[in-house]
Design a protein that fits this description.
Layout: H1 12-18, E1 26-30, H2 37-45, E2 49-55, H3 58-67, E3 75-79, H4 85-91, E4 97-103, H5 108-112, H6 138-144, H7 147-158, H8 163-176, H9 182-193, H10 203-215, H11 218-232, E5 233-243, H12 246-260, E6 280-282, H13 292-297, E7 305-311
Parallel strand pairs: 1-2, 1-4, 2-3, 4-5
Antiparallel strand pairs: 5-7, 6-7
């Protein structure tokens, strides 16, 4: 299984630019270690760096163990949700860390394996679970979710204009035959939503994105992890987050902005009464995207967006 998990890490140069460890020893949490690509580069550059790598995909962890074998005495791999990174770190005896990396979303190996059901371009079971120990699959949701809940997921997570029409069609279709494969859903998308206009993402891309986000609670995971990550960072420690669509990037951007704000009082007050002090300094003045040479060699890097910040103080609120 591990041999099938080949992943090219995106924005690797930029990650190396923002995650620096001048002091030895140092501790890094890679909350989405995947195949270990980013972590391998950092472990090679910093011989005294220790790594806690987390992933909920068993195939990814098998590959990471191979990739990071050269530094095995400095590496701990854990299967679980990255929103629990502070818990995993403290179980290891780490009360604070020097860096945190999160590379959010689905990986190329997951997309390229039809049996995982993440991609609409190859027929396979409608699974989409990053952690295959979980009970909820995409097919289970399609076959059991209410029309209202289906429409909400398509609209909010896929930003699909035809969300209500598609939800009604799903409910009608499953009465005749339950959804089982990606081809089943793609055929319905084509019938209900038609072919996408030039310059726009194909409708199945948005529908599969919505289902994947819902099945894996991806936005909830991200919202839960950010305050945990900042809390466990030491003063001067850094966090870097790579996201792949606007919903994720907006969460990161807003969190960093709020944590870097000097005042959280409502507009219009003559003096500050909140007593807040910023806990982060944002390092990326604007979002960082792939350079032309990376885009040429890895087209899947196109939607990648990196934001980074440095912890400057513990959170302080009156």
């Amino acid at each position: 299984m591990s041999g099938e998990f080949e992943h090219v890490p995106v924005l690797s140069r930029e990650v190396m630019e923002y995650l620096v460890f001048p002091d030895a020893p140092a501790r890094l949490i890679d909350g989405t270690v995947g195949g270990g690509g980013h972590s391998a580069q950092l472990l090679r550059r910093y011989p005294q760096l220790e790594l806690l790598g987390i992933d909920r995909d068993d195939a990814a962890l098998e590959k990471a163990a191979e990739t990071l074998a050269f530094a095995k005495d400095r590496v701990t791999l854990v299967r679980g949700n990255y929103s629990d990174l502070a818990l995993f770190a403290r179980e290891k005896g780490w009360m604070e860390v020097d860096g945190i990396l999160l590379d959010i979303g689905v990986s190329s190996p997951q997309l390229d394996q039809p049996e995982r059901g993440f991609s609409w371009r190859a027929d396979g079971p409608l699974d989409m679970r990053m952690d295959r120990r979980e009970a909820l699959t995409a097919s289970r949701f399609l076959n059991r979710g209410s029309e209202e809940e289906l429409a909400r997921v398509f609209r909010e997570y896929g930003e699909l204009s035809g969300a209500r029409r598609l939800a009604a069609a799903v409910v009608a279709r499953r009465e005749e035959k339950p959804f089982a494969t990606t081809a089943d859903l793609v055929a319905l998308c084509d019938d209900v939503l038609g072919k996408s206009k030039k310059g726009r993402l194909p409708a199945p891309t948005l529908v599969f994105q919505a289902l994947r986000i819902f099945v894996n609670d991806e936005l909830g995971e991200l919202e839960r992890v950010l305050p945990e990550a900042v809390e466990i960072l030491r003063i001067g420690g850094r966090i870097a987050v790579i996201s792949f669509h606007s919903l994720e990037d907006r969460i990161v951007k807003n969190f960093f902005r709020d944590a870097a704000a000097e005042c959280t009082c409502p507009p219009g007050l003559p003096v500050c009464v909140c007593g807040a002090t910023p806990s982060l300094r944002v390092l990326t003045r604007k979002v960082v995207t792939a350079q032309p040479d990376e885009l040429e060699s890895n087209r899947r890097s196109a939607p990648a967006r990196l934001r980074a910040a440095e912890k400057i103080a513990e959170k302080s609120m009156k």
